[in-house]
UniProtKB/TrEMBL annotation:
Active site: H335
Keyword Aminoacyl-tRNA synthetase belongs to the record: no
Name assigned to this protein: Phosphodiesterase
Residue intervals of the Guanylate cyclase domain: 1075-1230
Subcellular location: Membrane
Gene3D superfamilies from the UniProt entry: 3'5'-cyclic nucleotide phosphodiesterase, catalytic domain, 3.30.450.40, Nucleotide cyclase, Voltage-gated potassium channels. Chain C
Record-stated family: Belongs to the cyclic nucleotide phosphodiesterase family.
Bound cofactor: record note: Binds 2 divalent metal cations per subunit. Site 1 may preferentially bind zinc ions, while site 2 has a preference for magnesium and/or manganese ions.
Domain annotation PDEase: ranges: 261-576
Lineage of the organism: Eukaryota, Sar, Stramenopiles, Ochrophyta, Bacillariophyta
Organism: Stephanodiscus triporus
EC number per UniProt: 3.1.4.-
GO molecular function, one term: metal ion binding
Length: 1392
C-alpha cells in the first residue's frame, strides 16, 4: 500500500515558525506564483557531471567518501567549502565525517534544534543567501568554521523518498571567484546534487540492511521452500539454445519436445467467465456499481476455478465480499472499496494476460486475489507516518511497524473467523497454515517502506535463478497496488485525482493539528504533475521494469502506457498545468476526450473499432508528444530530471534553452582478462580470414599473379611496369597476411597446401622489378616473370618454369571454394525439388565428415602432383634443335671482320637490330632501345670475338610468347580444376555423400533419439547400389528403435549410439516427473471372443486414434498391454522447461482434453460393426451382426507423480518403461471409472496442475484411498458438456427418487436449505448449480448424510442423467443414509 508517492522534494513548509516563513519569501524559491523568475543559463557540462550515474556511486559513511563527493560538488559550483550532513537514527542530530586540525578522521555532529543546518531540514526548497551572518538562524558558535568567514551560503535538504522526510543537508560556502552570492544556476546544480545524494544514501542504507543476508536467503530457499514452492529459472541464452536445439532436431518430428508456449494444444478449450470487456486494462471501477464489482469478483474466482478447487460456496463468498466492503472507509477518496477491486482486477490481468499464473498454483492465485481485496482493510485515508506522528491507537497497537498493513491483515482474519464468511473452510491444516502465512506476508509487503527491500529480494532471486512462489505472489500484489500509472490515460488520471484528494485531506488534518505538512499534501502548493512524475520515476518505472525481466509480456501491457502517462504529466508540468482544474480544462479543449484506451490492449474489440496502436497513430493522445514513448534515450532522462526538479518551467526549459547530444556519451568495453583478449583477437583474425571481402581480395590477387604480367607484356609498355610492380607488391603482402592468418587460425594447416602456398608466395617476391637492383638480377627476375606468366613457357628458363608451375597450385583453394559454394547451391535446389526439406542434407556440406575431408584432400593432392610433374617433365625435356641464324651471321662477321658483305647481309636480314658493336664500327638506336623492356631486348655475342655483339628488338616475339603463355596458363588451370572436380564429384556422389548421410543420421539420432528420419528415396533395382541399401537400412533401424523403445528408451538409444564401446542397454534409471495416463478397453474379453483373429485390427485401430492424439498433445505412448495403453506426458524441469511457465499448466490441460477427444471419437464410432466397417468385409454375416450389440468404450485414469525411467529386464530382453507407485495409481484410478460409471477420472495431484478455467469444469467424484498408497485423495471428473444436458434418466431413476425422498419433519427442519437449493438448481447459472453440488459433496465428506440425501434428491430431480450423484445416492442408500460411526471419511479401494 503506497502511503505516499515518492517525491524528490517536499512541498510543505513549517506552520510554526513565522519568522522562517518570512525569510523564505526572500529566498530563491522557484515555485512562487505571480513573480517572474529570471531565466538562468545552466552550464551543460556541469549539469552532465551532476546528473552522471557515478557522481555519488559507491557512497558509504566514511571520511574518504564524504571528502571525495564534497570535493567534486565544490568544484562544480566553484565553492570554497562543501559539507554533507546526515540525520542520525534518533533524528536529534546531524553528523558528517571530516578531518580535525591534526589530520585525524573524526565524526562531527550538530544539533538539529540550533543553527542553520537544522532549519534547512524543514525547508521545502533550497536556501540561497548572501550575508548569511545577519540571519537569526545563523549561530556563529555552531555554524561558523574555525579560521573561516562565511559570506554567502547555499544549502538543499536531502530527502528519503520512501519515508517522505528529509534525511540530511548538503551545503556550500563562499564562491571561489569572490562573487557575493551563489547564482540561480548554482542553486539548480546543488538541487540535483542533493537529489543524487538522496538516492545514494537510500541505496547505501538498503545495502547495509541487506548485507550479509545472501547466505540466509539461499538457506531459506533450501530449508523453507520445498521443490514445489521454488521456481527454477533459466537464462535467456539457455532458452535460445534450447529452442535452437529443437529446431535442429527436425520440424517434422512428431515426438519432439512439445513447445507449449509456441504451439498450444489444439484440444485445449478454456472456459471463461469474465466478459471480454472486463478483461481490459481500461476496466474502470468508477463506472461500476458495487453489485457489478461483486459479480466481477465472482467471475474472476470462477474463471480461475477457485470455487471448484477449494469448495467455496457462493453464499459464503458473497458474505465475505460484503464484509470486506463494510471494512473500507467510504469517506477515503482513494483507499476505499473501489481501490480494492481495482487492485484485484490488475492482479487478475497480470495472472492471465502477462502469464504469471503459469508459475502459480491455485492456492497462490487464491491468496493473491484475497489479499488484493483485503490489503487496505480498515484504512482511514491517513498514511502510516500520520498515525505514527499522532501516536494513534493503531500505531501504539502495532508499535509503529507497518501500522495500517498489520491492521488490514488482522481485520481480514477477524472476518474469516466468522463461519458464514470463511471462504477457507474447506482447506486442510497444511493449506490453511500456508495461506495465513502468505496473506500476512503479502499484505505487509505492500507497505511503501518495504518497496526497495522487496525489489532487492526479487532481483536477487532472478540473479540466483531460483524464485519463491510466495515472493512472486507478493510482487504481483505490490505492483498491482502501485499500478495506477500503467493504466490507460483516462483510468490513470482518475486515480491520480483521487490520490491528490486524499493527500489534501490528510494535509488539512495536519494543519488542523498544527503539524508539519507532509510532502504534496498542502493544497496551497498543488502540483499534481510533479507528484505523478516523482511517483513514476522513483517507484513505478523501476519495479515494473524489474518485473518485466521476469515476465516479458509486462513490457507490452504496462511499460508503454506508463511512458505515455509520464509524457502526459511532463507536458502538463511544462505547460504549468499544476492543478486538477488546469488538467481537466486542458483535456476538455481537446475533443478526443479523456477516455483513450491503452495502446497495448489486446482484447478483441468491436469489429468496427480500430486497434489501439492504429488509434494512437491516427489521433495522438491530447497532451502527449508524438515521440513520447521514446523514453529510454539519455536526453529523455535528462529532461525528466529537469522537469522533476524545477519549480517552474521557465527556469530551465529543454525545449528553448538546452540541447543535448545523444551521441555524447559512449560506452567502451575494457577487457581485463588477457585470456579473453586473446580469444577475441583469434576470433577477429578468423573472421577476417573467412570474410567474403578478404576472400574476394585474395581471389583477385591470385588472378593478378597468374595473368597480369603476361597481359602487360602483350598489351602494355615499359611505362606500365612500375604500376605492375607495385600491384605485385600488394599481392605479395596479401598472400603473406593470408599465410600468417591461416597458420594462426586453421588447425593442422602445416601440411601439403602450406608448402605449396609458401613456395608460390615466395616466388612472387622475385617478380617485383625494383627489388632486383643489378642487371643480372633484373634478367633473372624477367626470366622468372616470363616463366611464371607462361607456366613453363620460356624455353631455356627451366627454373622460372618450375616456379611458375608451382604457382598454379594457388588455384586449388579458389576451386575448392567454388566447389563448396556450387555444391551447396546444387544441394539446396535438390532439396527443394526432391527431398522437400530433408534435415540430414542441411549439414552435409557445412560439416564434412572425416572420411570425406580426407578423400577430397587426397584426390586434390594427387591431381596437383600429377599435373605439376607432367609440366615439369615436359619443360625439362623441351629442346630447341633449330640453330639461331642471328648467332651464325654474327659469328661470320666476327670471323671475317673486314667483310662488308657479311655486315650488310646481317643488317638486311634482321631489321630489328637496335645496337651493334665491333672493331671500328658501332651502331645504337638509342631512342628505340630506351622504349624497350629488358625482356624485349636480345643481346648476342660472337663466340669467336667477345668485342663483336648485337642487340635485337624481340618485342613482337615476346608479345606472341605472352599470349601463348596466357593460353597455356588458362589451359593448365582448367585442366587442374576439371580433373579435381571430376574425380572428387564421382567419389563424393558414390561414396562420401552416402557415408556422410549415414554418419549424420547416427550422430543426430544419438543427440536426439526422437529425430524424425526422412526415408531415403528408393530409386529401383537398376539404380540402387550398396550404399543406398545401407542408408535405407540405417534409417529403418533408427525408426524401429524409436517405435520399439518409446520415449522411455530415448536415453538408451542416445547413450549407446554415442558410445563407441560395447552395447550396454542396462543404463541407470532416471527419476522424472510426469503425467501418467492409463487407458483400458471395456469388454475386451467379449470383443476378443467375437473378433478372434481380427482382434488385432480392433486393438490397432483404437491404438491409432489413441497414439496420434497423445503425440499431438505433447505426450508419448509407452506400453501396450493388449487391452490397455500406458501413456506418459513428461514434465520438463528447471531450465529445460519450454512451456510458458514452470508449472506447465497447458500440458495438463492438453493431456486432459486429448483423452476427452479420444473418448469422444470412440463414442461417436458406436458399435463394433460401425467401428470396423472398413475391415470386416470378409467376415461372415453372423459374426458381423453380433457386432451391432457391442459398443466401443474405454476408461481413462490420469495422475501426476514421479517415476524411474529406464530399462527393465536383462541384456537378453529389455523394456523401456517407468517404475513407480504413481504408475500403479493411474491404473487403479482407471479401474475406479467402472465403479463410478464414468469414462474418465483424475487424481487430485493431476487436477491441481490444471489451469483455473479447466478446473472450473471439473467436479469431485469421491474421496478415496487406493491400495499401495497411504495418502487420501479426491478423484475428479470433468463435465465436458453443461450440467443442463444431463437430462437422460437412467433405468432406476424412479428408484433413486424414492430412496432419497425425505419425510415431513425433515422438510420442516431444512426448509431454508431446501428452498435455497431449489432456487439455485432452477436458475440458469451453472455456477449456482455447482454451488449446490459442492454443498452436497461436502455434506457427504463431513458425514452429514441427511443433508446429502436432501440435496441428492433435488439434484436427481433436476439432472437425472448425472451418474456421479446417482452412484453416490446408491452407495449411501445401502447405509440408509446413516453414516456409520466408524466410517473413516473416505472410500477404500482394495482392488487394482
Amino acid at each position: 500500500m503506497p502511503n505516499a508517492p515518492i517525491s524528490p522534494l517536499p512541498l510543505s513548509r513549517s506552520a510554526n515558525d513565522n519568522e522562517i516563513a518570512q525569510i523564505s519569501r526572500k529566498r530563491t524559491s522557484f515555485f512562487e506564483t505571480g513573480k517572474p523568475t529570471p531565466i538562468c543559463r545552466l552550464d551543460l557540462d556541469k549539469f552532465n557531471q551532476a546528473i552522471a550515474p557515478d557522481f555519488a556511486s559507491g557512497f558509504e559513511e566514511s571520511e574518504d567518501c564524504f571528502t571525495q563527493i564534497t570535493t567534486k560538488a565544490a568544484l562544480l559550483l566553484g565553492a570554497e567549502k562543501c559539507f554533507i550532513f546526515i540525520k542520525d537514527i534518533n533524528e536529534k542530530q546531524v553528523y558528517t565525517f571530516l578531518k580535525d586540525a591534526v589530520g585525524n578522521k573524526v565524526q562531527a555532529t550538530k544539533s538539529i534544534d540550533r543553527g542553520i543546518t537544522g532549519s534547512i531540514l524543514t525547508e521545502p526548497s533550497g536556501f540561497n543567501e548572501s550575508n548569511i551572518g545577519q540571519r537569526k538562524q545563523w549561530s556563529y558558535g555552531l555554524d561558523e568554521l574555525p579560521n573561516f568567514v562565511t559570506t554567502c551560503y547555499l544549502a538543499w535538504p536531502i530527502w528519503d523518498f520512501v519515508a517522505c522526510k528529509s534525511i540530511g543537508v548538503v551545503e556550500f560556502r563562499n564562491k571561489l571567484n569572490g562573487s557575493p552570492e551563489f547564482s540561480a544556476a548554482d542553486s539548480q546544480i546543488a538541487r540535483i546534487i542533493a537529489l543524487q545524494l538522496g538516492h545514494a544514501i537510500i541505496h547505501y542504507k538498503q545495502q547495509k540492511l541487506i548485507a550479509g543476508r545472501t547466505e540466509a536467503i539461499n538457506q531459506a530457499f533450501d530449508e523453507n521452500f520445498d521443490q514445489g514452492e521454488t521456481i527454477e529459472l533459466s537464462s535467456s541464452a539457455e532458452d535460445v539454445s534450447g529452442t535452437q536445439s529443437l529446431i535442429a532436431s527436425g520440424n517434422k518430428c512428431p515426438r519432439r519436445p512439445y513447445n507449449l508456449s509456441n504451439k498450444p494444444s489444439p484440444f485445449v478449450v478454456r472456459r471463461t467467465s469474465v466478459g471480454v470487456g472486463d478483461k481490459a486494462w481500461d476496466y474502470d471501477v468508477f463506472l461500476k456499481s458495487e453489485e457489478e464489482l461483486l459479480m466481477h469478483a465472482i467471475d474472476i474466482f470462477d474463471e480461475q476455478g477457485l470455487f471448484s478447487r477449494f469448495s467455496i460456496s457462493i453464499t459464503t463468498f458473497v458474505n465475505f465480499i460484503n464484509e470486506i466492503r463494510r471494512g473500507y472507509d467510504s469517506n477515503a477518496p482513494y483507499h476505499n472499496i473501489y481501490h480494492a477491486f481495482d487492485v484485484m482486477h490488475v492482479c487478475y490481468l497480470l495472472l492471465t494476460k502477462c502469464g504469471a499464473d503459469e508459475y502459480l498454483e491455485s492456492l497462490h492465485v487464491l491468496s493473491i486475489l484475497v489479499a488484493a481485496l483485503a490489503h487496505d482493510l480498515g484504512h482511514d485515508g491517513y498514511n502510516n507516518s500520520f498515525h505514527q506522528n499522532t501516536c494513534s491507537d493503531l500505531a501504539l497497537t502495532y508499535n509503529g511497524i507497518s501500522t495500517l498493513e498489520n491492521y488490514s491483515a488482522s481485520y481480514l482474519f477477524r472476518i474469516l473467523r466468522k463461519q458464514e464468511c470463511n471462504i477457507f473452510a474447506r482447506l486442510n491444516n497444511e493449506e490453511m497454515t500456508k495461506m495465513r502465512t502468505r496473506l500476512i506476508d503479502m499484505i505487509l509487503d505492500t507497505d511503501a517502506k518495504n518497496h526497495f527491500m522487496l525489489m532487492k529480494r526479487f532481483k536477487h532471486c532472478l540473479e540466483m535463478k531460483k524464485l519463491s512462489r510466495g515472493l512472486l505472489s507478493s510482487m504481483i500484489l505490490h505492483i498491482s497496488d502501485v499500478s495506477n500509472p500503467v493504466r490507460p490515460g483516462t483510468v490513470s488520471r482518475k486515480w491520480a485525482y483521487a490520490v491528490q484528494a486524499e493527500f489534501f485531506r490528510q494535509g488539512d488534518k495536519e494543519k488542523e493539528l498544527n503539524m508539519t505538512r507532509s510532502p504534496f499534501m498542502d493544497r496551497n502548493f498543488e502540483n499534481l504533475p510533479r507528484l505523478q512524475l516523482a511517483f513514476i520515476d522513483a517507484v513505478v518505472q523501476p519495479v515494473f521494469g524489474l518485473f518485466a525481466d521476469f515476465l516479458p509480456l509486462v513490457e507490452r501491457h504496462c511499460i508503454r502506457p506508463l511512458q505515455l502517462n509520464r509524457a502526459f504529466w511532463q507536458n502538463m508540468l511544462h505547460r504549468n498545468c499544476t492543478k486538477v482544474e488546469d488538467v481537466v480544462s486542458f483535456l476538455s479543449i481537446h475533443k478526443t476526450e479523456d477516455s483513450i484506451v491503452g495502446p497495448h490492449d489486446d482484447i478483441n474489440r468491436d469489429k468496427d473499432s480500430v486497434t489501439s496502436d492504429d488509434a494512437v497513430k491516427a489521433a495522438p493522445i491530447p497532451g502527449i508528444p508524438a515521440d513520447a514513448t521514446q523514453g529510454t534515450s539519455p536526453d529523455f532522462r535528462k529532461m525528466s530530471v529537469i522537469s522533476l526538479n524545477l519549480e517552474t518551467e521557465k527556469v530551465i526549459d529543454p525545449e528553448i534553452g538546452i540541447k543535448f547530444d545523444v551521441n555524447k556519451s559512449s560506452t567502451s568495453l575494457v577487457y581485463n582478462s588477457s585470456r579473453g583478449a586473446c580469444h577475441k583477437l583469434h576470433s577477429r583474425m578468423k573472421g577476417l580470414l573467412e570474410s567474403p571481402a578478404f576472400q574476394a581480395l585474395t581471389y583477385f590477387c591470385t588472378i593478378h599473379a597468374l595473368f597480369a604480367f603476361d597481359l602487360n607484356l602483350a598489351l602494355g609498355n615499359k611505362n606500365a611496369d612500375i604500376v605492375m610492380d607495385y600491384a605485385t607488391l600488394i599481392a605479395f603482402l596479401v598472400f603473406v597476411v593470408e599465410l600468417l592468418l591461416s597458420l594462426a587460425c586453421i588447425p593442422g594447416y602445416i601440411q601439403f597446401f602450406f608448402w605449396l602456398d609458401s613456395i608460390a608466395t615466395i616466388s612472387i617476391f622475385f617478380e617485383i622489378g625494383f627489388v632486383m637492383q643489378s642487371e643480372s638480377s633484373l634478367l633473372i627476375a624477367s626470366q622468372l616473370n616470363l616463366a611464371k606468366a607462361g607456366r613453363a613457357a620460356k624455353a631455356g628458363a627451366r627454373v622460372g618454369r618450375f616456379a611458375g608451375i608451382l604457382r598454379l597450385t594457388r588455384l586449388v583453394r579458389m576451386f575448392k571454394f567454388a566447389k563448396l559454394t556450387l555444391g551447396r547451391a546444387m544441394n539446396k535446389t535438390k532439396q527443394e525439388e526432391e527431398l522437400h526439406g530433408d534435415e540430414l542434407e542441411k549439414d552435409l556440406h557445412s560439416s564434412m565428415s572425416i572420411i570425406g575431408r580426407k578423400m577430397t584432400e587426397s584426390i586434390t593432392k594427387k591431381v596437383i602432383i600429377v599435373v605439376v610433374l607432367m609440366l615439369i617433365m615436359f619443360s625439362a625435356t623441351e629442346v630447341d634443335y633449330t640453330p639461331d641464324a642471328r648467332q651464325i651471321q654474327l659469328d661470320s662477321v666476327a670471323e671475317f671482320p673486314g667483310s662488308s658483305v657479311l655486315l650488310d647481309s646481317l643488317f638486311e636480314s634482321h631489321d630489328n637490330i637496335i645496337a651493334f658493336s665491333a672493331v671500328g664500327y658501332d651502331f645504337v638506336d638509342q631512342e628505340r632501345l630506351d622504349n624497350l623492356r629488358d625482356v624485349e631486348v636480345l643481346a648476342i655475342t660472337s663466340t669467336f670475338d667477345d668485342s663483336v655483339s648485337a642487340r635485337f628488338d624481340i618485342s613482337d616475339d615476346t608479345a606472341s610468347q605472352a599470349w601463348y603463355s596466357l593460353f597455356k596458363t588458362t589451359f593448365v588451370s582448367l585442366l587442374l580444376a576439371t580433373m579435381g572436380l571430376l574425380f572428387s564429384r564421382d567419389a563424393y556422389k558414390m561414396v562420401i555423400r552416402p557415408i556422410e548421410k549415414m554418419k549424420n543420421t547416427v550422430q543426430q539420432l544419438s543427440e536426439n533419439p526422437w529425430l524424425h528420419l526422412e526415408k531415403t528415396m528408393y530409386r529401383g533395382s537398376n539404380e540402387s547400389n550398396e550404399t543406398d541399401v545401407l542408408e535405407q537400412a540405417i534409417t529403418k533401424m533408427g525408426s524401429l528403435l524409436q517405435i520399439g523403445f518409446g520415449s522411455a528408451g530415448a536415453e538408451i538409444i542416445g547413450k549407446n549410439l554415442s558410445d563407441l564401446g560395447e552395447l550396454n542397454p542396462m543404463i541407470p534409471g532416471v527419476r522424472v516427473n510426469a503425467i501418467f495416463g492409463f487407458c483400458q478397453i471395456r469388454n475386451f474379453t467379449l470383443a476378443i471372443e467375437e473378433l478372434q483373429q481380427d482382434a488385432v485390427i480392433f486393438v490397432n485401430k483404437i491404438a491409432e486414434i489413441m497414439h496420434s492424439n497423445v503425440v499431438k498433445s505433447g505426450g508419448d505412448p509407452n506400453k501396450n498391454f493388449g487391452d490397455a495403453f500406458f501413456l506418459v506426458w513428461r514434465l520438463k524441469s528447471g531450465k529445460n522447461t519450454h512451456s510458458s511457465g514452470d508449472l506447465q499448466k497447458e500440458l495438463f490441460d492438453s493431456s486432459l482434453t486429448c483423452m476427452q477427444k479420444v473418448i469422444k471419437e470412440l463414442l461417436q464410432a458406436g458399435s463394433l460393426a460401425s467401428f470396423l466397417k472398413d475391415d470386416t468385409s470378409n467376415m461372415s454375416s453372423a459374426r458381423a451382426s453380433s457386432f451391432e450389440t457391442s459398443n466401443v468404450a474405454v476408461g481413462v485414469g490420469l495422475h501426476k507423480g514421479w517415476a524411474i525411467e529406464g530399462a527393465i529386464g536383462s541384456k537378453v530382453k529389455i523394456d523401456a518403461s517407468y517404475l513407480s507407485p504413481h504408475v500403479n495409481l493411474a491404473s487403479q484410478i482407471e479401474s475406479a471409472t467402472i465403479k463410478y460409471n464414468v469414462s474418465l477420472l483424475m487424481s487430485e495431484a493431476f487436477f491441481g496442475g490444471l489451469s483455473g478455467s479447466i478446473q472450473s469444469t471439473c467436479r469431485r467424484c469421491d474421496r478415496v484411498s487406493f491400495e499401495g498408497s497411504t495418502d487420501l485423495m479426491v478423484i475428479y471428473h470433468q463435465d465436458i458438456e453443461p450440467l443442463s444436458t444431463l437430462q437422460a434418466p437412467p433405468q432406476n431413476h424412479s428408484t433413486l427418487l424414492k430412496i432419497t425422498q425425505w419425510d415431513e419433519e425433515t422438510n420442516v427442519n431444512y426448509r431454508g436449505l431446501i428452498k435455497n437449493a431449489q432456487s439455485k438448481l432452477q436458475s440458469n447459472s451453472e455456477l449456482a448449480q455447482r454451488d449446490v453440488f459442492d454443498l452436497l459433496f461436502n455434506s457427504y465428506v463431513d458425514k452429514d448424510w441427511k443433508i446429502c440425501k436432501i440435496l441428492c434428491h433435488l439434484w436427481i430431480e433436476n439432472f437425472p442423467g448425472d451418474v456421479i450423484v446417482n452412484g453416490l445416492a446408491e452407495r449411501l442408500s445401502l447405509q440408509d443414509f446413516q453414516c456409520p460411526e466408524m466410517w473413516p471419511g473416505f472410500h477404500s479401494f482394495k482392488e487394482k
